[in-house]
Amino acid sequence: MKIECILCPTDLSPDSDEALRYAIALSRAYNAELILLHCDDDGLAIPNADVKTAETIRLALQKHSGSADLVGLDWRSLVVHCDDTGEAIACEASKYGVDLIVMRSRRRPHRAALLGSTA
After folding, report:
1. What is the Cα 5 distance to its own chain's centre?
2. Apex 4 CA angle, 10 and 90, nearest 5
3. Beta strands in 23-94 (DSSP E)
4. Cα separations in angstroms, 47 against 32, 51, 52, 85
């Protein structure tokens, strides 16, 4: 299987860091482009918010890649404004020809044992 493009949606929380670490490792292992996606669904148009979000993504990437200059990592960040996060993730994955989506899973207590993750 050839993986050339990986999408990693993030909500910029510490809980998303585990998925980010996996996405970085997979990107390096397959020499694939890594796209970090943040879906902004608050509907507020705050000046420079996208720039600040992109910087937060870059800092998280530096922290978990083990390299301050991100050498050997082909990556980009995307910030999209949307009403439906799931739809936005699917749309961006289709638009960029993503081969793999790496995202965190939030398990709900009792049903999780039977149903698995919601991701």
Report:
1. 12
2. 45
3. 33-40, 75-81
4. 32, 9, 10, 21
Residue 75 pairs in a beta bridge with 34
> What is 5-115's CATH number, 3.50.50.60, 3.30.70.260, 3.40.50.620, 3.40.1350.10?
3.40.50.620
Cα–Cα distance between 7 and 97 in angstroms, integer?
Answer: 10
Residue 106 has pLDDT above 80, yes or no: no
Q: What is the pLDDT of residue 110?
A: 53
Burial of 77 (0-12, 13-18, 19+ CB in 10 A): buried
Residues 6+ apart with CB under 8 A from 89: 7, 9, 37, 39, 101, 103
